[in-house]
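Problem 12. The chain below contains 329 residues. Write out its predicted structure in token notation.
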Amino acid sequence: MTALAPTLQTFFTQRLAAQRHASTNTIASYRDTFRLLLTFVQETKGIAPERLSIEDLDAPLVSDFLDYLETRRGVTARTRNSRLAAIHSLFRFAALCHPEHLALIQRVLAIPAKRATNAVVSYLTKQEIEALLRAPDLSSRTGRRDRALLLVAIQTGLRVSEITGLKCQDVVFGTGAYLNCTGKGRKQRSTPIRRDTTTILRAWINEYDGSQADPLFPRPGGKPLSRDAVSRIVARHAATAAKQCPSIAKKNVTPHVLRHSCAMQLQLAGVGVAVIALWLGHESIRSTDIYQHADLAIKERALECIAQPPTGRGRYQPPDALLAFLERL
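Solution.
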């Protein structure tokens, strides 16, 4: 076994888990990055992961891996940068353990992140939200679970990791019902829920009959739904809803789109940016500015405030007799 294997193991067990106390989502993201990287090296170089050395992971190889992610796997620039950040984190740790490879490590650390395009966020309109909530088959237990999950996602704007991490004890009923969740960066927050959401959640928990520590939205085995499972649930019901509301078919409906839809509903209702940032658990209100760019109504109201200059329609007049002849042809 080469020096890379124990370094990688120590990076996860000591650096991330013990020293930095990284979240489970961070550790899972880093794990997936190195699983993809080691598989890529094995397929392209024929080197088994346990025989891979630090010298093999040079800057050209890492750059080829990042290009592979974009061209072959079709990831976005943001995902590429996330994978690169995990590699950089490992190599900064390796610089402390193996200073003899410092020159190679510096070249890997010099690989820059790629600038990402800030696209306008996608969200569902009120009519599309209503069609999506009607999509689950309420005659089945799974359909009732999915309806409760979709309603929570749209009304609270929780991230998909926050939804899968919800337990029955996180739902607090009574006057001013709310949900407790642990969000990004281990920030805990409480989000109020409407009466209709409270009614549906109470009915679901009574039917589910789970203990306080059980996941709020379990899969058939009783364990919490995975992120991929939630994505498949949303996509399946979006396809059903598109039959009644064709505009949904033009959108790639994901759990994060439901989060965007919650923010846009709050903004259209006149809620301030600071409150929306607090609702979504954003670190800064700058992260919430994307919803103002997505709201065309704000720009239309601004356009109405601008006085139109007096411009005549006019008509082209040829300045020359020959041009006038050609104009009449």
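Discussion. The chain has two domains: 4-109, 126-304. Students who got a different answer should revisit the alignment rule from Section 12.3.
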